[in-house]
Amino acid sequence: MKxxxxxxxxxxxxxxxRLRRHFEVETNDADDVWSRDELAERLQGKDGAxxxxxxxxxxxxxxxxxxxxxxxxxxxGYNNVDVPACTARGxxxxxxPDVLTxxxxxxxxxxxxAAARRVTESEHFLRRGEWTKWTVDLFAGAxxxxxxxxxxxxxxIGRAVARRGARGFDMPVLYHNRSxxxxxxxAEFGARYVSRDELFAGAxHVVIVVPYSAESHHLxxxxxxxxMKPTATIxxxxxxxxxxxxxxxxxxxxxxxxxxxLDVFEDEPSxxxxxxxxxxVVLTPHIASASLPTRLAMSELAADNxxxxxxxxxxxxxxxxxxxxxxxxxRL
Length: 332
Ligand code: DGY
Description:
single chain, alpha/beta, 7-stranded parallel β-sheet, 5-stranded parallel β-sheet, binds (2R)-2,3-dihydroxypropanoic acid
């Protein structure tokens, strides 16, 4: 008999077809974010779930779904999942790292450039019919090439951003990370490890790529923004909550910094109302990894994990990116 799974958000049809070859599949074609009660109800009798970063998963939910054996997310970030609670209940959890690294770094660069060169601000001006003549400083912004790039969080995506800056745009790179990188990795991008304060003070363009956790909550607030140059920009492609959105809106409005690019927000899909009214911020709806090939790769990796996690045959392949493989002890 096939195992039963729940696909909690709409995913690309090719992946659903593949999953149907392995499992009895219930899908969420309406693509609504289910409440905890509805999710728990739909998970009854399911062996596995394919989720995204929009479903909170915790011990209370897991206790209501005792049959569940595997939860696989198509997202890299997993601050929505209590992994120790999964492990304690023998539920395998896998996220989907790596496949979105380059696409997300591309987008981080696009946002940073759009903010620095005032792309959306000037487009809105043009669309409003306010462009009546060329002037020498019309929407004059900051350069990217040769400017100092500051990367907060030098994981895979942070390194991909640094590589683009160093190799493509001749940018000196400063970075701050929980731990310093090996000298050979630093040498790849000519990256210099600095304190957080030095990063904010020294960079012309700061890109934030740290995962969200209790420790990184409001890592960037009024004090950090105050340290930055008035000509500087800040770009967040990590998670809402790492930046204090209200403080950022104030810093943008009063000229503490020049501009910002934000793909993630504290209370998605709501956006802090003050950010909607300041002109010098580029806002996008959490789409940094949203190229079609990458979204397919993310879904396929989640499917790879789910298929392997629920395959109990001796010698079956292991889920490639599980975070708690130990729950499959019987197979290791
Ligand atoms: C991720 O993979 O974490 C992206 O933010 C999409 O959820």
